[in-house]
Amino acid sequence: MTAPEVTVPEVNVPEVNVPEVNVPEVNMIDVIVGKRDGRALRTHEIEWFIDGYTRGAIPDEQAASLLMAVFLNGLDDAELTAWTDAMITSGDRLDLSVLDRPTTDKHSTGGVGDKISLPLCPLVAACGAAVPQLSGRGLGYFGGTLDKMESIPGWRANLGTTEILDQLREVGAIIAAAGDRLAPADRRLYALRDAIGTVESIPLIASSIMSKKIAEGTATLVLDVKVGSGAFMPDRDRARRLAETMVGIGARAGVRTVALLTRMDTPLGAAVGNALEVAEAVSVLGGGGPTDVVDLTVTLAREMCAAAGLDADPGAVLASGAALPVWERMVRAQGGDPTAPLPRAALIETMYAPQRGWVTRLDARPIGIGAWRLGAGRAHRQDPIVPAAGVVLHAKEGDWVEQGQPLLDIHLDDPARLPAAREFLERAYTFGPEPLPVPPLVIERIA
Ligand code: URA
What we know:
Elements: H1 28-36, H2 43-55, H3 60-73, H4 77-89, E1 104-108, H5 117-126, E2 131-135, H6 145-149, H7 161-170, E3 173-177, H8 184-196, H9 202-215, E4 220-227, H10 236-252, E5 256-263, E6 271-272, H11 274-285, H12 291-307, H13 314-320, H14 323-333, E7 347-352, E8 357-362, H15 364-376, E9 390-393, E10 400-401, E11 406-412, H16 418-425, E12 429-432, E13 442-446
Parallel strand pairs: 1-4, 2-3, 4-5
Antiparallel strand pairs: 5-13, 6-9, 7-11, 8-10, 8-12, 9-11
This protein binds uracil (URA).
Uracil binds at residues 190, 199, 204-205, 208-209.
């Protein structure tokens, strides 16, 4: 029997555009060895690593090895962009385009007495911008902005996204905790870097800071990169490289970013310590306060307004008193009472000038360590801080003092802390027969 002839009907197969499936296999050993030997990592390798490590799928020892290779060999611009993007993608990114004001924010690398965010946020909001300052707590001898704000009775740092957006709409400024969903990869990587000696890597610092700021949703950003003995990065050339790296990351992410290198070899203002710094910030908003704090606040506010495209004069707005009610609304919106007394120390001890002369140097570092030893800062993330502890400076660089004149007041709750703090505070002042010129606060601008 012969088989019947089968005619196969002609079928019109629609043309389907099947994308080429190209998911390259990534192997952690290849990634580590590649970076160890100086190879630029590919975007998909970086994405795979950041995602895997954040989910707990890559062990600490392999992540540590890669971080050390990055520390030693760096990241080029393409790697840095991919690394930062992957850290942003590890969590949520706030969408602030729903606001009807331009957004702008400031980040400082931290310094002794640096309370600038407190007057700056309400001032820039009073100039017409929305300021979404999502911050962290301090570690070491820099008090974090949240630590300072938490000395205000009732004030609460943790807010949900809806509350953040509502406050930005209604008040125009917010200082709040960067929640767990903002660049969670950074939290894991930073903890590991801290444990393995890779914190001081410029690409890792830059991507860590910028991933959080870009995820926060601000359209423009001003960076205050501190230089000097009281700064996280004391060396000027390294601070400049950090600033340039962060400005580059911002530009590639579409966030207009400007950096100022500012002097941090002497404390900012007179108050060092959380509640003491809040009081100083409020006096700036009320038209008083130390000149250096006022000048830096106005300088940064000008940069933020210019970046946001606002034609405002922050100096005039500050002088008009218009920023103070914004501060009060900001504090109230987060449960705080701006009129409540701030915590006061149980004990105030005065340190007197051992000789007469001009103050030729007031070193930020021993002042920062002294305040930290009084309880104003923490050694470990979980440590409590003492809100009222700190130092109030009565003599600064360029001042003349007589022997026995008060140099500073030491605010503390626990007298047992005094000797360890004094050991540092006593080293902070240098006196001379002639005054030395006090250098300007702003060293350089990088855009
Ligand atoms: N601050 C950050 O947020 N990240 C760093 O890596 C260093 C300082």
